[in-house]
Amino acid sequence: MARYIRLNDFYGSVDLADELPGEIYFSILGQMDRFWKQEHIFRNDGMRLSTVVNERLIPRYSLWTRILAHTIHNPSRPFRVKYQEAGAYDISEIKNKLLQYVAADDDDLTQFMHAADISDSLDRSNSFDDIVDLIEQVKGRGEGTLRAGYAAISKSLRALLTRTNSDAFVIIEEPMGNVVQFIGSRSEPLVIDVPTEALSREAKDHAQRLFTSLGGRFFENQPMYDRVGGTIVGTREVFQMELNTDVRHATNVALRVLREVFRLPDTARLIITEN
Predict the structure, then answer these.
(1) Backbone torsions φ then ψ of 233, nearest 5 degrees
(2) Model confidence over 159-216: pLDDT tens digits?
């Protein structure tokens, strides 16, 4: 888990680091505009840090050099840097900064995760580690794992609600064979469906408690068809819940099933199939 979150107001950049560098390259524009003063460093112990550069080492650039730096020639050079503690921070400071960056984003932060989902995840983030996990998802790291599940699942469910085929679905499968299924379409609500075939007795009990608390239902003899609108070929046990078109809620319910029923770690691989 990263020890530092680094945010830069000038670039709107978001980075994670285990260690801070002792040397940083600054372009001529970076030197003139003191880019390091626009950086916010948050350490995992609740302390904010500021970057310190010996400004006496910065040359007095000529007008011509400054003009070139704004156009075609803006070279960089290394500077030794130090870091000093600048007081404690509240977790809301990081959350607010990230929301500002997302609002002004040029698709860099929203390449792997929808802006509304980032906002929703920030609402649910209560610690430094929660925000580090979110940044990992925003950066597309851990893709295909439960840690990045919110982004991947919500993206698939949003796509599901645009489909017009009657057999549209999303299936989320984990390595042991347990699955979470969704049906829905442009004209039909989202319905989560968790079959019990591969569930242990303990997992089934967890599912019963979870779906009961959320207003879902357990069907003991639900018909199984060979195809949509086809012939009944048997029955099955299944937990189900209608979720209207609320992608955020549906995603959160799916994650609760994966974590609380299937008891998966954040590193578990997920296979998401769409039709």
Answers:
(1) -115, 0
(2) 999 999 888 899 998 877 888 999 999 999 999 999 988 888 899 999 999 999 999 9
Residues 130 and 165 in one domain: no
Alpha carbon distance 251, 129 (integer Å): 21
Chosen domain end from 140, 165, 186:
140
Task: Return the CA Rg of the chain.
Answer: 25
The answer to whether the CB of 222 falls within 8 A of the CB of 236 is yes
CA angle 130–255–182, rounded 5-degree value = 150
Q: Max CA-CA distance within the chain? A: 83
Residues 177, 178, 184: CA angle, nearest 5 degrees = 120
HSE (side-chain half, CA atoms, 13 Å) at 238: 17
pTM of the model: 0.60
**Integer Cα distance of 63 and 68 in angstroms:** 9
Counting the structural domains of the chain, the total is 2
Q: Comparing C-alpha atoms, which of 196, 192, 210, 189 is closest to residue 259?
A: 210
